[in-house]
Design brief:
The protein is α/β, with parallel strands linked by helices. The strands form three sheets. Strands 5-4-3-2-1-14 form a six-stranded mixed beta sheet. It has a single domain, classed as Carbon-nitrogen hydrolase (Nitrilase/N-carbamoyl-D-aminoacid amidohydrolase). The longest helix is centred in the first third of the chain and has 17 residues.
């Protein structure tokens, strides 16, 4: 059985402030490595902010764009696996993408979000493939936010069928401005969708969400509220991050991987 420490960076993401967001991400990577984490999971669209129009000018390529290179350098400097969401430029198209970077600074996985919300289609094209990475720590899969509740949980279940032992998901979880968390606790959607797949395949699923207010798009004014989540292979929550627009936190969970995930019978 492999044991590792996973870090989740529930960090602020400010739309249109790419350099500040990347500075914050680099610090989170350094702090996680210092604390002994082997993997750090960062939020969705952490460079430009989800649905922020600054991506039209600021998004870079993967793996050689400025944002991706900044994360690759941080991973190599601190000897840690880094998973993060970035807005990607590919020709004249933009993608809501994510990368898994090795401790040597190499991009092992490059995923383009498939189940993007309709309100974001004016800005982002959708991806069309999935993959897993076989690493010394185990087999890692990658998805992004709403990929986790694709119809029939098709994306996460496909990663399970491909042998993923941990599915990493950069996220940006938001609520309406008047949301009352005491009356309607956030997170049921993710507990249900992550839990069913984690239990069915005997794997781990981790989602790390940013905090801060969305400032552009149909959800302008909606706060991202953290609540980062890790589900264990029994379908139970191993970690739940704090709720709130200012609930920044660097979270840690100890992960134990079985030699092989068991197949779903669902």
């Amino acid at each position: 059985m492999t044991r590792l420490k996973l870090a989740l960076a529930q960090m602020p993401v400010i739309g249109g402030q790419r350099d500040e967001n990347l500075r914050c991400a680099a610090q989170q990577i350094a702090d996680a490595a210092q604390a002994g984490a082997e993997i750090i999971l960062l939020p969705e669209a952490l460079d430009c902010g989800w649905c922020h129009s600054s991506a039209i000018n600021d998004a870079g390529t993967i793996p050689h764009g400025a944002a991706c290179m900044r994360l690759r350098e941080a991973a190599q400097t601190h000897g840690i696996y880094v998973c993060a969401g970035l807005i990607e430029r590919s020709g004249d198209r933009l993608f809501n993408s994510a990368v898994l970077i090795s401790p040597e600074g190499e991009v092992l996985l490059h995923h383009r979000k498939i189940n993007e919300l309709a309100m974001a289609h004016h800005l982002y094209d959708c991806g069309d493939h999935l993959a897993v990475a076989h690493t010394p720590l185990g087999t890692l899969g990658l998805m992004i936010c709403a990929d986790g509740f694709a119809p029939g949980q098709a994306i996460s279940r496909s990663l399970g069928l491909m042998g993923a032992q941990i599915i990493l998901s950069p996220c940006a979880w938001a609520v309406p401005p008047n949301h009352d968390n005491a009356r309607e606790p956030y997170g049921g959607l993710w507990l249900d969708n992550y839990g069913a797949v984690a239990k069915g395949f005997g794997l781990w699923i981790a989602g790390a969400s940013n905090v801060g207010v969305i400032t552009e798009g149909e959800w302008s004014g909606h706060p991202c509220i953290g609540c980062s989540l890790v589900m264990n292979p029994t379908g139970e929550a191993a970690l739940r991050g704090p709720y709130g627009v200012g609930a920044s936190a660097l979270l840690f969970v100890d992960v134990e991987l079985n030699p092989r995930p068991r197949m779903s019978t669902c």
